[in-house]
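Practice problem 4.
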């Protein structure tokens, strides 16, 4: 009897030990070194192996890349995973400098079809884009070759990007597509003002995206909205250098989805080519409306075109202005916007003659150009003026 009891206890203890080890492994941290990733080396395979194990974990998992310098080729990781995953990066990861070494990848780091993903840490993702920018001929070639972006976040739900830095991407720094409830908080984008086509964060066909407490300096739009963007918040963001915070460009293609619900608040733009802007193409097939756009409490420091609706957007003369834009813009407010303009007209509202803008409000606009009040120029729109706002000249 005693022997039976002892055997039973032994089996029980072994089972508990096994379960404890199993649970520990499932909830443990997957350090990149465990999979052969070392500083000053290539961690492509190590990262893919760590993701595979983390994605299979039935409880929350963390992949860690500690301080140090690493290289990594293009990676494409997918869910669905069984539990939340955090990727904590505290080192500097470098992409191949030669665009050909990206092997045709559209994004260097692509994460898709997953839930509850956190990308965090003090790390830097260095796209080493300087060589690629020299190859960008989009100013003269409408069919120019698309270069690789730093990040593709596709079809993610309930996820967050926190504190990391995207540096010198070859193309857009971040593409957000098909996501729901994705937040950027303390995110940084670092690239020179002459880095072509390097939008900071480009959003398309996504809902409830928040960009908070973020600093973006780049060579194109700091934030840009593509079609199908809904309920987007940009708050406490510093933008510059760059081309400003933009809705669009839109209307160039058929079957674009409406854009609605854009809230930009407490932002500072410095030395940018534009401020807050809505842009649509003329003589183009797109008809999906843009509505419920609100820009409030914005500081402009030497910003050209601080407040800008441009429904004759035609970069590099790649289109005709023979026919007006078919996109209706409505329910737009610009309030409490102050600072210095780099152009005499601080407000330019160039709306479509085919479908004039409706429900546009200008409130408490206090912009100066060379010490004098900046002026406003408007066409195909009759904005409501509240507080101190410049009257429109046609």
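Answer key:
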């Amino acid at each position: 009897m005693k022997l039976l009891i002892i055997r039973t206890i032994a089996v029980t203890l072994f089972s508990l030990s096994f379960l404890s080890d199993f649970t520990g492994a499932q909830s443990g941290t997957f350090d990149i070194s465990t999979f052969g990733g070392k500083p000053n080396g290539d961690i492509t395979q190590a990262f893919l192996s760590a993701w595979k194990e983390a994605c299979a974990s039935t409880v929350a998992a963390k992949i860690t890349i500690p301080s140090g310098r690493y290289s990594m080729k293009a990676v494409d990781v997918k869910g669905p995973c069984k539990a939340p995953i955090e990727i904590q990066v505290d080192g500097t990861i470098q992409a191949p400098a030669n665009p050909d070494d990206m092997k045709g990848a559209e994004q260097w780091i692509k994460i898709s079809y997953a839930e509850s993903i956190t990308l965090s840490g003090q790390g830097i993702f260095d796209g080493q884009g300087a060589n690629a920018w020299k190859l960008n001929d989009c100013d003269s070639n409408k069919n120019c070759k698309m270069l690789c972006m730093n990040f593709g976040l596709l079809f993610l739900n309930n996820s967050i990007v926190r504190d990391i830095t995207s540096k010198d991407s070859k193309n857009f720094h971040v593409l957000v597509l098909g996501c729901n409830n994705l937040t950027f908080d303390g995110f940084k984008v670092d690239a020179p003002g002459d880095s072509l086509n390097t939008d900071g964060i480009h959003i398309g066909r996504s809902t409830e995206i928040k960009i908070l407490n973020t600093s973006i300096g780049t060579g194109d739009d700091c934030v840009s909205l593509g079609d199908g963007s809904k309920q987007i918040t940009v708050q406490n963001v510093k933008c510059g250098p760059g081309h400003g915070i933009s809705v669009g460009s839109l209307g160039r293609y058929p079957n674009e989805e409406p854009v609605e619900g854009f809230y930009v608040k407490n932002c500072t733009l410095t030395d940018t080519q534009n401020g807050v802007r809505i842009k649509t193409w003329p003589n183009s097939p797109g008809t999906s409306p843009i509505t419920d756009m609100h820009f409030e409490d914005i500081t402009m420091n030497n910003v050209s075109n601080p407040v800008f609706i441009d429904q004759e957007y035609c970069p590099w003369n790649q289109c005709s202005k023979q026919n007006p834009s078919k996109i209706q813009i409505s329910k737009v407010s610009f309030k409490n916007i102050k600072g210095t303009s780099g152009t005499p007209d601080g407000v330019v509202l160039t709306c479509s003659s085919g479908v004039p803008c409706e429900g546009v409000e200008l409130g408490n606009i206090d912009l100066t150009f060379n010490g004098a009040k900046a002026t406003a120029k408007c066409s195909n729109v009759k904005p409501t003026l509240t507080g101190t706002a410049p009257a429109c000249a046609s």
